[in-house]
Amino acid sequence: MSTVLVPADMDEFWVFGYGSLMWHPGFEFEERQIAVAHGYHRALCIHSWVHRGVETAPGLVLGLDRGGACKGTAFRIQPDKRDEVTAYLRERELVTSVYLERSVPIRLADARRSKAIAYVVDRRHRQYVPGLSADDAAQIVANAVGKSGRNSDYVLNTVAHLRSLGIRDHWMEEVADKINLYQELG
To answer: N or C: which terminal CB in the chain sees fewer CB atoms within 10 Å?
Structure first.
């Protein structure tokens, strides 16, 4: 299991959310801000065999993949809650080991720079699915269901939450539009 890579001089503990953590963190936090994680981008690049699909009919979930920048939400955690939140996140995010726990550079909305724990896709993992078109992603998502529900709900909720925060992700919006079209066509 990976260890948390927070520099020793960092007094604050931040968690970066770019998908369902933004709208369903599942932990207590002291502060929430829009933030940008540098060096990574949001992508539907992970076959979901547990929460949003099954191994024989996988769905797609988001990963933080190399390159670019990703606007999401940073949560500042109370120091005495650090171990509890880290344990919760590991249980939630490391189900199939497709994510790597990393400390990533972030820029907060108030212009501060810090580091945050984020769950980055392991490009060597067999669930990693790089370079899908919006149409291919939407076709997979439109039909997948896992123990946490319909894959389309996950993607549409994420896009709705991004929009409510004023965050534009044009590729995700295109996927959502195509999912809605596939669902209308039945």
So the answer is: C
> What is the CATH code for 13-185?
3.10.490.10
Reported pTM: 0.87
pLDDT in tens, 17-40: 999 899 899 999 999 999 999 999
Domain spans of the chain? Answer: 13-185
| Spatial CB neighbours of 157, under 8 Å, sequence gap ≥ 6 | 20, 23
For 136-175, write each residue's pLDDT tens digit. Answer: 999 999 999 999 999 999 999 999 999 999 999 999 999 9
Is residue 121 within 8 A of residue 64, CB to CB? The reply is yes
The set of residues, in sequence order, having a beta carbon less than 8 Å from that of 119 and lying 6+ positions away, is 63, 64, 89, 93, 94, 99, 100, 101, 102
CB–CB of 103/115 below 8 Å? yes
The neighbour count for residue 147, using CB atoms within 10 Å, is: 10
Contact 148, 154 (CB under 8 A): yes
b/e string for 69-103 if b means 16 or more Cβ within 10 A? ebbbbbbbbeeeeeeebbeebbebbeebebbbbbb
Within 13 Å, how many C-alpha atoms sit on residue 146's CB side?
22
